[in-house]
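Tokenised fold entry reproduced for absentees:

. . .
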Amino acid sequence: MSEQNEKAYISYRHVYKAFGTQSVCLDFNLDIVKGETISIIGPSGIGKTVTIKMLIGLLDVDQGEIWFDGVDVAAFTKDKLFMPMRKRVSMLFQWAALFDSMTVFDNVAYPLREQFNLSPGELKERVQDKLELVGLPYAGSKMPSELSGGMKKRIGLARAIATDPEVILYDEPTTGLDPINTVRIADLIIALQERLKCTSIVVIHDITTAIRLSNRAAFMYDGKIKAVGTMDALINSEDSFVRGFLAGDPTLADF
């Protein structure tokens, strides 16, 4: 068995994943440093979201290792073994994935009730704090159906940070949002990074937002990481495919 890179907080090591005959990860390798915000970018439908779902056990690893803080989580064979880790890692899903039958308050409170034994007063205080952080302090009594798309994303983000996680996974956090809400969500992610001192992994297509958010970015294609570095380095990459994709030039990035 290989060992985790000593400088990495999270390490993907020779990860393979397929759905039937469709291979998604083919010797996928990536090191993530504690406290950074790293974006995973690349063409649609190539498995970027799959990589973060494997980290928290929503999808199994077919082969390889995923190290998190010195533990190979890919070796976990039972869902219950992921529970301690899920107190440390939260995910904002692409469409927020709010429970339609619950109020905003109960949506945000859900992970707190599942993972902690808080008094009613402590629970109310924690939920209110997170709602204030995302700029929706008076939304607790609303139902998801009463919210705009941007508000749903912000409530989803409040739920994701309810447990004060060490790692936050963002799956296309700005998809479907207008330019104003895109900037609002990006600014929230940056502010939360500064307040929580967490590690953030952002799966994203929006290159402008990736530039705004990221310390580094990893370009995924054909099941592998094709390039990794600062966004500026990738934009000016010697690899014409990477450079062409980021520039939106189909003559260079023809896939």
Observations:
- Residues 1-81+198-249 form a domain with the Rossmann fold fold (CATH 3.40.50.300).
- The mean pLDDT is 88.
- The CA atoms of residues 1 and 65 lie 9 Å apart.
